[in-house]
Amino acid sequence: MKKMCIKDIVTSSSDNTKVTICGWIKEKRHYKDVIFLDLTDSTGVIQIVANRLKLDEKTFESFKEISHESAIEIKGSVCHAESSLNQKISVEASSMKIVSRASHQISPRPRSDFDIFDPNLANHLLRNRHLYIRNPKIISILHFRHLLMSYMRDWFNNNNFIEINAPVLTSVPLYEDGSALSLDMKGNKVFLTQCVGYYLEAAVQAFDRVYNMGPSFRGEESHSKRHLMEYWHIKAELTYGNREDIINLVESIISYLTKRCADTTEEILKPLGRTICLDGLKIPYPRLSYDDAIIFLQKKGEDIQFGKSLGSHDEALLSELYDSPFWIVGIPRTVEPFPYRIDPTDKRKTMVADLIANKGYGELLGVAEKISDPKMLSTRMIEKGRHKDPRYEWIREVHKAGCVPHIAFGMGVERLIRWLLDIPHVRDTIAFPRTFRRKIYP
């Protein structure tokens, strides 16, 4: 087991302390009789000094020949010496053990300093993601992602939600069959989940407050900067509430996550050169009716009519109106799938609202009052062509077995991270992105 991390040495070691460090070679510089290695592990980077005058010739030759990315074990003494890492602590090596020699080299080097968002490098970085996941900037994003999701779990746990592990394989897509990724399971057509809402809807009748954090899949091709074929969803449902309740709850979540990330991730984000967007702290967020959104877009010259969904370009135009996230309220029933309740004051609409990020980052999440009345469910299923589909019979049964009013939200993890960190594309917010028209590799 590894006994000492680089962070421990940098922060707490004094001169002449004997240390043993394991890590990978990030950079290497050779100046006649001295070789400097920048050694890295998951906790930081430290400079290793190999002095020909203090090493036997064989060991010094090993330092000369060792390649970038090789894993090594260094034994030596802590010393004070200025380095290119802006540290006053270095380790003067007394020996080096090669743990794993890196024979495969790639350019740019995975741990080197380059623009990971450079569109000219995008294909190369995606094709070699298994190596570039070592890049400090990608590590920074993924570490942030880990903390964000752990904070989300904390919020759910502190607010009495029960986690439900909903299935990934389902017989019932949320939208049209062609919008989902399908599989043949011994003659039965099934789908990779688009949304766990049907399962949470059943579970909420038992637990009152439920959530799920897991993967979702999109079969309908899109090449926008906020769509992936495989992404992660945070979904939650709770009983006895209305649209205003779920809007307020989501605002408290976004504000909580923003503040907690701002308080804890500054050091983690240093390699990325980012600080998180604080615009989510300004609650409550502005409201814009769908009707007013359409009028505004038409005045801007956009070819859009009532009953159509808003695209990325439309949302970007609307975001110019606000310096914080904002809600679009009252999405038409022609746009939304059948599980969402019809607006009793305007039968053309549903009790749905979408939260749109400012600065042109588009939709972050959606909230809704869900249907509990079996008659309304039948009406909506007829509208969407689902009323004669036997695959949905178990959903009807849930609504006929004492289904109470319930509300829900669904949020894309990658979209939230993209907005918080000002990242150009959602593919850069997940460890191994699955994008459209790309071979599944690695």
List the helices and strands and how they pair.
Elements: H1 6-12, E1 18-31, E2 34-41, E3 44-51, H2 57-65, E4 71-80, E5 89-100, H3 122-127, H4 129-132, H5 136-158, E6 162-163, E7 169-170, E8 182-185, E9 188-192, H6 197-207, E10 209-217, E11 230-239, H7 243-264, E12 287-289, H8 290-299, H9 312-319, E13 326-329, E14 352-357, E15 362-370, H10 374-383, H11 393-400, E16 406-412, H12 413-421
Parallel strand pairs: 3-5, 6-10, 12-13
Antiparallel strand pairs: 1-2, 1-4, 2-3, 4-5, 7-9, 8-9, 10-11, 11-16, 13-14, 14-15, 15-16
Query: What fold name stands as the CATH topology of the largest domain?
Result: BirA Bifunctional Protein, domain 2
| CATH homologous superfamily annotation of the largest domain | Bira Bifunctional Protein, Domain 2
Q: Spell the H/E element sequence.
A: HEEEHEEHHHEEEEHEEHEHHEEEHHEH
Helix-and-strand structural type? alpha+beta
- Which class of the largest domain in CATH terms? Alpha Beta
How many whole angstroms does the radius of gyration measure? 27 Å
Q: Proportion of β residues?
A: 25-35%
Number of domains: 2
Report the CATH architecture of the largest domain: 2-Layer Sandwich
Low-confidence stretches: none
Biggest β-sheet description: 8 strands, mixed
The mean pLDDT is: 96
Overall geometry = elongated
Strand order, sheet with most strands: 6-10-11-16-15-14-13-12
Distance between the termini: 29 Å
